[in-house]
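Figure 6 in text form: structure in, sequence out.
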């Protein structure tokens, strides 16, 4: 789908990858609604690109419906919805050490938010025979994020739900992309553009890949090409892949003295 003149919503659009996608889509002519938990950040990006800002918790289905109402009142029926909001915290100790509240939050933000958006938008998109859903998951949804079990499990679920959307609604004229970046220099990792290097892309790099992927209507958008190679290794020999990940985890402890999610980009 092309972006010109399209009505687009992006969640988590106040920061990092979401803000970069908002700017890139606006530069291509989209009318953008920036939705974020943080009203101030959403407003700043909306002001910059001439869009609108809506405060919203994507884990609240009624809030998603109200974002759609606000976006449609300002820009017309939503053509492109980008579910991008996300969080990452890491495991305090063993792989099940985060409390249930944290697992539930990951489930709501990384999976149910995508379900709520699809549930609200699909009936009218199917009726129009057109619409595009972009779900930002992660390379952790194809591989794993060492040191963050809730993030890895829910990002896998996000990839699976995107597959279900694509398989079920391709014939209805609905486009679906799932975005699976590896490390990106954003506030999520406590990083900024100045930290970017090989294997640690800027948010703008990812936004460029997302815009090109949506324009080409590609299901799997990989900003980091190596992820395809790692996923192929995992598919070819899962036991060998787990052994490799165990070695990578041991290397992280040896190098940094701990398993901290924000340090892994230095090892890959
Ligand atoms: N940074 C990375 O290395 C990386 C890698 C792979 C995937 N991702 C994914 O990309 C997406 C964007 O991450 P980012 O790195 O730009 O992070 P970020 O922290 O810079 O931005 C995330 C935004 O989401 C918003 N948000 C969080 N919870 C929300 C909620 N409940 N409702 C509405 N908004 C909410 C935050 O306020 C923030 O503005 C996430 O889904 C993340 O998992 C990031």
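Output sequence:
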């Amino acid at each position: 789908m092309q972006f010109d003149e399209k009505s687009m919503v992006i969640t988590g659009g106040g920061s990092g990858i979401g803000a970069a996608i908002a700017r890139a889509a606006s530069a291509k002519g989209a009318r953008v609604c920036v939705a974020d938990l943080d009203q101030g950040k959403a407003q700043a990006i909306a002001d910059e690109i001439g869009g609108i800002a809506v405060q919203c918790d994507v884990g609240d289905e009624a809030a998603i419906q109200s974002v759609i109402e606000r976006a449609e009142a300002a820009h017309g029926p939503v053509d492109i919805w980008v579910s991008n909001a996300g969080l990452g915290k890491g495991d305090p100790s063993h792989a099940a050490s985060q409390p249930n509240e944290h697992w539930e939050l990951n489930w709501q933000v990384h999976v149910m938010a995508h379900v709520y958006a699809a549930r609200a938008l699909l009936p009218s998109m199917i009726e129009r025979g057109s619409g595009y859903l972009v779900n930002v998951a992660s390379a952790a949804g194809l591989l794993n994020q060492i040191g963050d079990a809730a993030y890895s499990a829910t990002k896998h679920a996000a990839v699976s739900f995107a597959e279900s959307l694509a398989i079920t609604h391709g014939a209805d004229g609905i486009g679906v992309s799932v975005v699976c970046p590896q490390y990106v220099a954003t506030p999520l990792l406590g990083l900024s553009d100045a930290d970017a290097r090989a294997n640690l892309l800027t948010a703008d790099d990812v936004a460029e890949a997302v815009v090109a992927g949506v324009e080409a209507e590609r299901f799997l958008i990989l900003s980091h090409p190596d992820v395809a190679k790692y996923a192929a290794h995992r598919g070819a020999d899962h036991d060998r892949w787990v052994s490799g990940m165990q070695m990578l985890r041991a290397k992280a402890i040896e190098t940094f003295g701990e398993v901290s999610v924000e340090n892994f980009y230095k090892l890959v």
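Caption detail: The radius of gyration is 18 Å.
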